[in-house]
Queue: 2 jobs
Job 1
Amino acid sequence: MIQQKMDMEATGQAYRQARQAVRRRVIVCAGTGCVANGSLKVYEALRQETEARGLDVVVKLGDDCGCKSDVFLSKSGCQGFCQAGPLVTIEPEDWLYVHVKPEDVADIVEQTLIHDRPVKRLVYVDPASHEAFEQTHEIPFYKRQQRVVLGECGNIDPEDIREYIARGGYAAAKRAFTEMQPEQVCEEVLASGLRGRGGGGFPTGRKWALTLPEPGEKKFVICNGDEGDPGAFMDRSLMEGNPHRVLEGIMIAARAIGADEAYVYVRAEYPLAVQRIRKAVADAEEAGILGEDVFDSGRNMTCHVMEGAGAFVCGEETALMASIEGLRGMPRPKPPFPAQSGLWGKPTVINNVETLATVPLIIAEGSGHYRRLGTAGSPGTKTFAVTGHVANTGLIEVPFGTTLREIIFEIGGGVIDHLGQVMPDGFKAVQIGGPSGGCLTAEHLDMPLDFDSVKKIGAMVGSGGLVVMNRDTCMVKIAHFFMRFTQNESCGKCVPCREGTKQMLWLLEDIMEGRATAETLELLEELASAVQLGSLCGLGKTAPNPVLSTLRYFRSEYEAHIVQKRCPAGQCKALAMPEILADRCKGCGACLRKCPVNAIAGEKKMPHRIDAGTCIKCGTCAQVCRFDAIVGVN
Amino acid sequence: MNNGDMVNVDGRDIRIEGERNLLELIRKAHIELPTFCYHSDLSVYGACRLCIVDIDGMGVVTSCSTPPKAGMVVRTNTAPLRQMRRMYLELLLANHHQGCATCVKSDRCKLQELAVRMGVTEVRFQTKLEAKPLDTSNPSLVRDPNKCILCGDCVRACEEIQGVGAIDFAYRGAATTVAPAFGKTLSEVACVYCGLCASVCPTGAITPRPQIDRVWQALSDERKTVVVQIAPAVRVALGEMFGLEAGVVTTGKMVAALKMLGFDKVFDTSFAADLTVLEETTEFLGRKTRGERLPQFTSCCPAWVKYAEQFCPELLPNLSSCRSPQQMFGSLAKATLPDTLGIEREDLFVVSIMPCTAKKFEAQRPEFQAGGHPDVDAVLTTQEFGRMIKQAGIQFNQLTPESLDLPLGFKTGAGVIFGVTGGVSEAVLRFAYEKLTGVKLDSADFAEVRGPQGVRIRQIKLGDVELKLAIVHGLKNARAVAEDVRAGKADYDFVEVMACPGGCIAGAGQPVSFEQDTRHRRTQGLYDTDKTLQLHASQENPYLAQCYSSTLDGIGGHRAHELLHTGYRSRKRVMDEGFSVLDPSGARALEINVCVGTGCYLRGSQRLLQQLVNYVKDQGLERTVDVRATFCFEACDKGPNVKIGEVVMHRCSFEMVRAELDKQLRQVAA
C-alpha cells in the first residue's frame, strides 16, 4: 500500500492561517497537577459558558478554516507553575489566571472574552510582595527561567500534530534525514556539548558516535521515559506536553546511528504520557513522518511504545532493555555496553526524554546557537522539578550555571514552613538528583549548578529533582526516607545492593530510635562505601549518596541522635522527650485530660509532670497546650 | 619486551590466550578469586561481587564480567578489596539460616568455605530472618529458601543448560527469592528432577532428598533381604568423600562397605546396562530394518524421559521402550531373586545407589510398581551412600576390596561406560556391529562418539550400514536436536540423551565438587574400568545369556517385554490450579476456567475474563457460576483457552463463551 504522505509545508501553512483567523486562544493546563486540581472541569465549564454566551468557539482548528472565530479553546501540557494550578492562559495577551475554578469561568468569559479585560481577581499575586502580575512572563516564577526545551509545553496542543508542524516541527528531523549524513548529525550534537539528562551527564554526541560505526544492519534507539525519582516529573511533562518534540528527537537519534526502529519506554504510572506518546506515534505514522521512506530519504523508521511495570530499576539501561525483551527487569554487568550489544544483542542508543527533546533544537538552530546558554562544560538549559518546602513548587527550566539561590528564592519564592508560610531564614538543604543524589546546603547556595560542580561536592544533577528542606527537617530521617526508597526498589540481584541497603536502612533505624552506638556510625560508613564501590548498577552505586552526603554536611545531627539520643529537629519520635516547663505551665489540665495513656499528673493550677515511662510520645499534649509549656515532642 | 597481549596481575604479566574474562585469566596466575555466581558453563551474572579486582583507570570491577585487554594493570588483593569481600560475606551470612551444624551441605558449603578463607570472624549486621517453608513436594530434591544466597546459579543452570526454567527469581529487593512459577512446588511444575540446580548450588538451598533412614530401617528389619545395585558412575566418585581424587575406582571397597552395612547381596547396575544394550539395540535394528520410526532416542535417563513427556510428547514413539538399567535391574531382581534366595517377594528390599536425583523419581513411577510394591524400594545417591559409611564409622580407605555377587553383579565394559556421555551409544555400537556384520569386533572402542561437546553428530559405518548418531548431553541441546527431528531437518538413526553435562558421572547425586577437572577425571575412571575388564561388549556377558534362557524367553521375548520395557505418556508441565475470581465461597453448579497464562493473556484472555465476570454479575449468576482464572491448558497456540464444565474451547471470543455458557446453563436448569 502506498501511503499518502502529509505535505508538511501546506499543513503548517493552513494551520497558521486558521490560527490567525481566531481572535483569542484560551489554554487550559491539562498537565497532571492541574488535572488533579480540576482543570478539566474548568475546560468543560469554559466550553459550555462560551457556547451559552453565543461565542463562536472552536476546539480544534480545521485545515480549511478560513472562517473567523472568537475563541480557540485548547488544552496544553504542564505549564510548570503547578503550585498555582489550575492554570488558564489567554493569548495573545499572555494573561495568566491561577487557581481557576469552574465558578470563575463566567467571569473569564464575560470580562476577558467578551470585554477584552483581564479578570483581576484571578491573576497571580506574589505572596511576599503582594504585587499582582497579569502577564505570564512578568511573574517572578517565569521571569527568571529560560524555557527552551519546555517552551512549547505550556501552550501547544500536544494532541495536534499540525500545530507542532506549523511551528516548524519535524523540520530538524527532515534535515537530518535528507541533508545530513549520520556523522554530521553526531558531530553537530557533539559540538553542542549536550550531555545526557538522565543522570550520568555522558556527552550525547559521543554516545551516538560510538554506536554509529558498530557493525550490523539492525540498531535500536530507546527513549528512556521511566522517570522514577520521587518528586521528579520533568520527563512526564515533556511527554505529556510536547510528545512530538520527543519523537522528533528519537528520529534524529535514529538517523545519527543508522537505526530504523525505536522504543519509547514509559512507566505505566504515567497513563497520560503513554496515551499522548501513543497518539503522537499514530499521528506521525498517519502523516507518513514515521513509516517507510521517511522524508523521501529511502530510509524507514518505526517507533513502538512500551509501558514499564513500575520498577524504578528499569530506568537503568540494561534493566530497561531486559524489560523490553520480556525478561525480569534486572541490570546486567557492562561491558558489553548497549552501544555494542543492547536490545536483543543489537547496537542500541538509550537516551533520556529530555535529552532527546533537546536534540531537534540543536539540529534546527545549530550547536553554536545552543551553546549560548549554560556553562562551557554543561551547555544549554536544564529542567528541574522543584518540590518540598518551597513557595512555588513546579517545573522550571534554567540555564546551567544558575545558582540554587536564584532557583529557590527567586523562582521558587523562598522556603516555607509546614503551614506554607514563608520562612525567611528557613533554608536548611536541598536534595538534588533524587535518591541517587545528595544534599546541598547553605554554603552551596551561590555555587553555579552544573554537572561537574555538583558532582565535585558528592551529589549529582541527576534527572533534575530538587527537594527543598526547611530547618525543621531531620537529615537522618531524610537519609532514611531515600534509603527506604532505594532499598524497596533494589532488584535484588547483587549482594551489596540487596543486602547492603537493607542493613543500611536498619542501621539508620537504630540511629533514629536510639539504639545506636559510635560503632553504628562507623559500620554505616564502611558499609556505605562498600555498597557504593561494589554494586552492580547505578542504582546500588548511588544508593548510599543520601547517607554519605548528609553525613558529610550534618554529621553533628547524626551524633546528636547517637550520643545524646536527641533529634535536633524534633522529628524522630522515638527520641522525643516531652517535658512540661514548670514556669510556663498554668496547671489548666488540658494536657492531662487529652493524654491517651494517662501519663500526665498534677494538681489544678500547679505545674504538671509527664511520666516518661508511660508516655508514648504522641505529642497530643503539646498540641493542646495553649501556653507552649510542653517541649521536646512534635 | 613485548607485552602487547599481556595483562599485569599483581605484578606478573599473564598472556591473554582467548580468555573470555579476567577471572579465567587470573586463574592462570594461580590465583583463585572467590566467587559464587561464576560458572564457566553458565552466562556471566555478576551478582555476588566477590571476584572484584582493582584495575588502573577503571577502578573496582568484577573480573567475571570484564574482558581482558592488553596492558591492563590488575590488582586482586588490596586492603579495600579484602574489606569489601569480607563485608559482602558478612552481609550474606546475616541473611542466611544459621543452622550450619545440622545442614547436609555443611562439609561442602561454599559460603562457609569462603567465609573462613576471607577471614570473616564476626557478623556485625542484624539478622532478622523469617522462616520460609521448605519444598519437600517431590522424591528427588529439597528446596530450602532459608539457605539461598540468590547467586542465581540454579536459575541459570535450569534455563541455560536444561532449557527447563522450572525456577526463577520472584519478588525484588530484599524480598527476592528463587521459586517455581506462581509460588508452586517443584512437583507442580516442569522440573525434571535432574538436580543440576543442586549440583551448582553453593549452599544447602537445594539438595538431593535423602532416603537414608528408609534404608537403615530395612537393613535392621530381620524379615527383609536387602540387595543393592550400584550404578556405574558411583564407583569413580564416591572416593572423593573420603579424600581420594576424582576418578579413583573404588568398586571393591564399596562392596566391602555395603556388606559391613548389612546388605545381603551387592550387585551392579552395569549388568542391567548390558541387558539394556541388548534390548535397545535389538529394538533399534528392528526399527531400522523394518523402516519404522527413527531416530530412536535412548530412554536410560529419567530426567530426559520426563522432559520428553512434557516438552516433546509427539516424539514419545521415538523413545526406546526399554526401561532404564535401574528399572530393568529392579524388575529382574524382584522376578528372579525371591526364588533364588528362597524368600517371599515382599521380603526382598531392592536398593539402588545412583549418581542421580531423577532416579528417585523414576523408582516411584507407577509403571514400575508391581502389586503396589515398587521394583526398586529405595534410591540412594552417591552422597547418601558416603554418609551411611561415615555414620557407621567405617574407615573406607582401609577396607580390603571384595567382589560383587553373581549373577547380577557381573558386567562387561560396555555396561560400565553407560555412566558417561557417549557411553550408551558406544555400547550399542559394540553390539550392533556384530549383529550387522556377523563379525566379532577387533577393537571395542568407538572413540569418535566420545568427547565433551554438548552435541556430537557422528556417521558410523558398520559393514554396509551407515548409521547417523547424535549424542547429546544437557537437555537444552536435546531439545534442539528434537526440534530438528520434529521439523524433518535431521536424519539421525539414533540419538543418545543424557540430561547432565558429562553424563551420569556428573549427576546431582554425586559428591559435590566445585573443581574444574572433576568431570574429566571421573570420565577417565570409567573408560579405564572398561579397559581393565575382560569383556567389552554386552553380548559377551555369559550371565545375560543365562538370564535370557532361564527367565526372559530370549531377546525380545514375551517375558523380556513384560519385565524390561515400558510406555510413556504426555505429561502436563503445569499442574492446573486456578483461583476463583468471584467470591469463592459456596459450591456452584457450573465452573468456568479462563486461562490467564502468558500465551492466552497476550491473546486477550484478561479482557475476556473481565467481560465474563461482568456478564455473570449482570445476569445475577454469581451463585450459579464459578468464574476461575487458571494457568495453562498447554494449547498456547490456540488461545485464549476456556473450559466450561467439561467443554474445552480454543480461540475463544466472548460471544463464543457466552453462547456455550448459556447452553450449559439451560442444561443445568433442565
Job 2
Amino acid sequence: MVQIYARKKALAGAANVLLAGAEKLKTSQNEAVRNRTTLDFHIELLRLRQNWRLKKVSNTIIGDLSYRTAGSKYLQTGTFEVTKAEDDEKASSPPSSPLPSGPTPAKQNSALRVSIPSELQGVAYIEVLCQKDHEDLCSVNINLLGSGPPPPPTQTCIGSKKLEAAQNVLFCKELFNQLAKEAVQLQAPIPHMVVGNQIMATVLPGIQLIIGLCHSTTADKKQQHPSPSKSEHDHVLEHSLHQLLREVHHKNTHHPFPHPATGPLGPSKKRMFAGPMAADRYELLEMTKTDTLLEQIVKQAQHFIMRMRTEYVLDTIAKEVKDPLISSHWNTLNSPTQSCVKINISTHGYDAVCRTPLVIHVGEKSLKCICRDGKVMNMSYEPQELRDLIFCHINQHQILAVQALAKTMGWQALGNSNHLGDDSTGTVEPLGNASSCLMSSPTGDRIIAVRCEPHTGIQVSVAHSPRTDFFPSRLVTERKWEHLGGQFRDVRLDKMEGRNFLHKMELLMASLTSNS
Amino acid sequence: MGVTILTQFPTENRTGPHTIDVLSKRIMALGALQQGQFLVDCETYTSVPQLGPQRTVHVLHNSEQPATVFSLLETGTKTIPLATDGLFDLLMMKMSSFYTSKKQTKAESKGPRYEIGDFCVKLGTVTVSSNFKGILVEVEYRPCVVPAMCWDLLKEFLQGFLGLSGPTNPPAYLQNRMQEIYSPIDTIHQYLEHFTIFRKSPGIGMRA
Amino acid sequence: MSAPGTAMDSLSAALKCNIIPNQEYLLQGSVLDQYVEVLLHRLRGLCDNVDSGPESFHDHELCFTLRAGSGSGAPIVLPLRVRRALDVADAPFQLRYVGQQELGDKNRPTVVRSSIDMACSSTIVEFLTELGCRLDFEYIARGYMFRKGRMKITVSKIFKVAGNKPVETVEPISQSYLVELSVLAPSGQDAIGEDMRIFAEQLRPLVQLEKIDYKRLGSMM
C-alpha cells in the first residue's frame, strides 16, 4: 500500500515537472509570437522610413508625403500616420489621428497601418482633351455619367503603394489648382473658363483644350469622373503637364550658384550679367517674364493641333495628286512647340532633272515655309493656306521640270511665268495661281506652250512654224511669212502615251524634234 | 542695342521747353510715337589731396540701362570705364573721405523718348545743378552696332528733323572708333563730353 | 509712364525700405585635409538639393585698400576686394566692400559686418589701381559651395599666388580647408544668426564654426 502510494507520488512529481515544462514552453512560444509582430513592425517601419519622411511626435509616428521638400509651394498638407496593425483592432481609430476615414484595407500580412487623410485617398489623374467645339463637349459630358469606374485600388496594397497613390492625388491637386489659378488670372482674348473640376481654354478658333481633375475615392463611388470613352485623352499633353509642374518644383529648389563664390545667392546668371553688361530695359523686362503653366500647355496644344493639321493637309494632297509625287519627311526630334517637315516634289523617273524641296516650320499658331528659291512664306493656322501654297508649288514644279527636261532634249525655253492670273494672261484662279511656259524646238520650227492650273490641270499646245503644208493665198503669198508662227493647237494629254506628265512631254518633244 | 549719336541743338533765343516742343512736333510729324521719358545723370567726384595726384570719377546713370551704374575715371593721362550693378552708388558713399563731389556739378539730361521704326529719339533738356544749359538730341539706330556702317544713315535722319543744326561729322569721341563695335558705355562717353562742355559754359539764365 | 526718377533717388528709397542686402552674417572654421571628405559628405546630407553633386568653384581674389593719411591720427582705410571665377570663363567680376565687424552684442551668434557686393566689368582691376588703391595680397580659392535656404556654405582651399606664375603651379598655404557659413541680408534680420548657429551645431565636431575676431587674431601673432 505504501509502495503504491509512493509510486503515485513519484508519478505525480514527474507529471508536474513535465507540465511545468510544457507551460514554460507555451509561454515562451507566445512571447516569441508577440515579439515577432513587433519585430516585423520595426522592420517594416525601417523600410518605410527609407522611402518616406517620418518623424515621431509624442506617441504617434507622423509622415509627410507632400512635395514640399522637392520645391512645391502648395498649401495642402500631406501628413499621414503610421500605427501598428494590432492596435487598430483594439481601438478602431487612434485619437490623435486627424483623418482616419475610409475603409481599412485588410492587411493580415502587414504589421503597419498607414492612415491617409480622406481627401488624398483614391486615385486621381489629370485628364487633357482637345475638342472641336461645344457640341462635342456636351456629348462627352453626357458620356461621363455612363461609362464605368476605373479599377479601385487593390485591397492588398501595402503601405508604400497607398502612399504613392496619395502622393499622386496631392500632385494632381496641386497641378490642377495651379492651372485653375492661372486660368482665372490670365487675360486671354477668349477668357479661360473654370467650372468645377474642369478648365477650358480656347487653343485655336473652334478648338478647346479641356483639362480636368479626375479623382475617384473608393469610399465615395458616386463622385467618379472616369475617362470618357469617346474623345481620346491626350497622354502626351498630360505628361507634359506633369513635367511642367515638376520643372517648377525643380526651379524652386535649384537656384544657380554664383560665380565667383562670394556673389549673392538668388539672382539668375543672366541677371548677374545685367549690370556689368549694361542690359537695357527690354532685356531686363524679358528676364522677369516667364510663361505660366497654362500658357505653356496651351502653346503645346496649339502646336499639337498645327502639326496634326499640317500632317493631314500634306497626306491628303499626296493622296490626291499622283503626278508629281509629294513626299514629306518629318524630323523625328522636335520640341514641344516646334517641329519641322521637309517636302519634296518630284516626278517618278525624273528626280535628277528637277526636284522642288520645301521646308515647313510648324510653330504654335503659324507656319513658316522656306521655299526652293529661299523665299519665306508665313502662314496662319488655317490649313487652306498651306494647301494653296503646296498646289502653287506643284504647278511651279511642273513648269520648271518641263523646262529642265527641254534643256536636256536640246529645246529652248522661251519664257515662263509662275504667277499668271492678272488681266493680261487669263482668268484669275479661285485658289492659288497658274504657271506657264513656252519652249521652242532646236531648229525653232515647233513651239510648245504649257499652262498649269490648280483646277483644270495641265494644258499643252503646239504650234508649227512654218506649217508643214503651204498653200499660197491672196493674203499670204510667200512661204517665208509662215515663219512668224502659227496657230496653237491643243494636245490631248490624256490620250498620249507616257507614265506621267514629264514622260509624255519627253515623248512629245522627241516626236516634234525634226530630223533636219 | 545699336549705335547712338548725341548732338547739341541750339536754342537760338527760344526757351528750353519751347525748343523741346518744336522738336517733338517735328519728330511726331514724321510718325514717331512717344514711349515714356528718359534720364541721364552725371555726378562728378574728385580725389582729396592726400590721395596724391588729382583724379576724377564721373558716375553716370542712364534710364535706358536701369540696372547699371557707369563710372569713368579720369587720371589725366587716360580714362578708364567701369560698368557695375546699382550698388556702386553705395560704395561711392563709403568713399566719401577719399572722393568728394562738388554739389554744383550735378548734370542731367531728361525729356521725352520717341520710337520711330528702327530709330529711338530722345530730346533732352540739360541742367547743371538745376540751371538750364541747353538741349541734347540723342538718336539711336538699333539694327546696327558698327558706327561706320550707319553714320551716313544717322546723319541723314538727324538732318531730316534738325535741319542745318544736324551734325555734319561724327561726334569727336566716336571719330577714332568708327569701325569698332558700339556699346552702351560709348553713349555714356558722349554724354560726359557734352556735360563737361555745358558745365564750363555760362548758364543761359533760364530755369528749365 | 511717369518720368524716371534719378538712380540716386531710387537707391535712397531702397535704403530707406531696407531691402538692400548689405549685412553679412558670418561664421568661420577650418578642417584638416584628411577630414574634408567627411565634411563634404555631411554637407551633402544637410544641404539643399545636392542630387547633382556639390557645386565647385575656382576663384581668384585680389584684396585692395584705399588709404589716405589724414592730418590727425590713424589713416582712413577702405578695403576693397575683387574676385573673379577662373572656372567660368565669362562670369562677371565681383567687387566687394567688407566692413569692420559690428561690435554689438557679445551674445550674438555670428559675426555681423556690412558688405556691399556688386558685379562689375573686367576693367575693375585697372579702375581700382588708378583710383589709388594698393594691392595688399591676392590668393586663389578652390573648393565647393552648398546652400541651405538662405545660407551659403563654402569649403575652400586657399592657394598662394606669387607674382606672375601660372595658375596651375600655385601652392596651398596650409593643410586645411577654410569653411565659411554666411548669409547676406538686409540689416536687422538677426533671426538668421540663430539659424546659422543651429546649422553650425550640426557640423560639430567635424568643424567648429565660430565668430573669428580678426583684431584679436592679429594681436595673438
